[in-house]
Design goal:
With 238 residues, this protein is of the alpha/beta class. It is 37% helix and 11% strand.
């Protein structure tokens, strides 16, 4: 596993970090904080059925003492097209072959493009060179906007679309330190950095009291990661 914990920046370097309240973004937040960034955390209330993740994001932001935490409201429900923003059923108990193939109905059209666009705008205002996102291309649900090619293309676009990029005063970098890590490796990294995973949620279809379903793709990937790491998942399951 790459020694991600060894990465450092000048203390207080500003960065915008996309914080969902999930396992990956919590690990990313710990990594960024330990690296020396002054983290400006950005979360979204976008009409997601698992909005309980925002409570987790707020708690994580407070725990890791971010410089600022902003929750933006952008309702994607009028467009539909995803089980996370409509009444479509969330897939449950898919086998490993199904998890590894195709793009599931939990994909939210253009979500990361939208999120990164907001992050890009805030970074330009802050004078920040780095935007951090916890996407992963190994143990993930096959979303097209979690892949290296997408991130690289967005970074090129960002430096063409901003005043700071065009004038050459600041070059924006999209940092994805978790991209090539397995879920097991992400959990191991976070554990080494002191992440309390009881503060996170991964479930796409939690119960009304916030308990994880244990059967959606996100829950399955999370549970498998903890099992492979030889650790107990502290999240509460229904």
């Amino acid at each position: 596993m790459t020694d991600q914990a060894a990465f450092t920046v000048a203390p207080g370097t500003p960065a915008v970090l996309l914080l969902s309240g999930g396992l990956d973004s919590a690990t990313l937040l710990a990594w960024a904080t330990r690296a020396g960034y002054a983290v400006h955390a950005l979360s979204f209330r976008y009409g997601q059925r698992h909005a309980v993740e925002l409570d987790k994001a707020r708690a994580l932001a407070a725990h890791w003492k971010v410089a600022q935490h902003v929750v933006c409201d952008i309702d994607l429900r009028p467009f539909g097209g995803s089980a996370l923003t409509s009444d479509l059923a969330v897939p449950k108990d898919r086998d490993e072959g199904a998890l590894a193939s195709g793009i599931p109905v939990t994909y939210v059209p253009a979500r990361n493009t939208i999120f990164l666009s907001f992050a890009m705008a805030w970074a330009e205002v802050l004078g920040a060179q780095d935007v951090l996102i916890g996407v992963n291309a190994l143990d993930y649900s096959g979303y097209p906007d979690c892949r290296p090619a997408f991130v690289e293309a967005f970074e090129r676009m960002a430096n063409l679309a901003t005043r700071t990029g065009v004038e050459g005063t600041t070059r924006l970098t999209i940092r994805t330190p978790l991209m090539q890590l397995t879920k097991r490796e992400i959990i191991q990294l976070g554990t080494s950095l002191g992440v309390d995973y009881a503060m996170t949620t991964s479930c796409y279809d939690p119960s009304s009291d916030g308990a994880a379903c244990g059967h959606c793709d996100a829950c399955q990937l999370r549970r498998r990661g903890f099992a492979q790491a030889g650790l107990q998942d502290p999240v509460r399951y229904a």
